[in-house]
Design brief:
By secondary structure, the protein is mostly helical. Helix content is 79%, strand content 2%. It contains nine helices and two strands; from the N terminus they run ααββααααααα. A hairpin with a 2-residue loop joins strand 1 and strand 2.
Length: 280
């Protein structure tokens, strides 16, 4: 059904944006529930392995009952969490479809509807003929949200980097201490092997995903965008022109350039070392 003529271009565009935001929120909810379910499942599997493998290696040589008791309790919690999250994912597979309460969709259907909503917005946007200055003003008003998102991602990568670095430090120290007593107790040899594998795995993860570099790039981009936004608000150079439209256009161009540079740095981190070398 075509939109009523009484609705202005801004209202129609806002309705398209609301639909897109609703679909994206539903998809985030589904992803969160699925990650929660997978996390409980992985935790249960790790608890089973944590009980079975050390017990088999130290059978009749070391009493693993206290450790196994804790792991079994954690495994039971993970199993209960996995069953509960699976039930929620089955019963509440997705939030209601906007405009049709009670209609539950799969994640694939939600993503398809999101693409359709974005396509409808692209089709309907050109006839709306929103003035360029209004688009630039809306873009500048979205900068605080963009800064918040960049900082959240930066903090998330920083926490991951610090977590794996802490495991490497603690694992290395514990490994060195266990090696000093490796000749006195047989179970310590298994502990040394486990600690060595833990340190190697953590080092490999941090080296492959480059959490520290990603966090630094995101924080640097957020600081640069905030610097330009503050200069624009306070009419500092280069946003001290007498023409407000020129200042707004300059801010839009600078911020978009910073965002493009950030995406290029992210793509560069995903490439192998030889591909990251600048071409001569």
């Amino acid at each position: 059904m075509s939109a009523p003529l009484s609705r202005g271009p801004a209202t129609r565009l806002r309705e398209h944006n609301e639909r897109v935001l609703q679909w994206r929120q539903h998809i985030r909810d589904v992803r969160f529930r699925q990650r929660l379910m997978y996390s409980f499942g992985a935790g249960g599997v790790l608890c089973v392995l944590g009980v079975a493998v050390p017990t088999a290696l130290t059978w009749r040589r070391f009493d693993m009952a206290p450790i196994n008791t804790v792991l079994i309790l954690l495994g039971i919690v993970c199993v209960i969490g996995f069953v509960g999250s699976s039930w929620i994912e089955t019963i509440r597979h997705a939030g209601p479809q906007p405009g049709t309460p009670g209609n539950r969709l799969t994640r694939e259907e939600l993503e398809l509807n999101l693409e359709v909503a974005i396509e409808n917005r692209l089709i309907d946007a050109p006839p709306l003929d929103i003035p360029i200055r209004n688009r630039q003003f809306a873009y500048s008003e979205s900068i605080p949200e963009e800064l918040d998102q960049l900082r959240k991602e930066s903090h998330r990568y920083r926490r991951r980097h610090n977590f794996f670095q802490l495991l490497i430090i603690v694992g290395s120290i514990a490994n060195a201490g266990a090696q000093a007593f490796s000749d006195t107790a047989q179970p310590l040899k298994s502990i040394i092997i486990g600690l060595t594998m833990l340190v190697a795995i953590c080092a490999g993860i941090t080296g492959y995903y480059k959490f520290r570099e990603r966090s630094f790039n995101l924080q640097q981009t957020a600081d640069s965008i905030e610097e330009h936004a503050n200069a624009f608000q306070l009419a500092l150079p280069p946003y001290d022109s007498a023409d407000p439209a020129a200042n707004l256009a300059l801010l839009t161009a600078r911020v978009e350039t910073l965002r493009v540079e950030q995406r290029r740095r992210e793509q560069q981190l995903d490439q192998p070392p030889e591909a990251r070398e600048p071409a001569v």
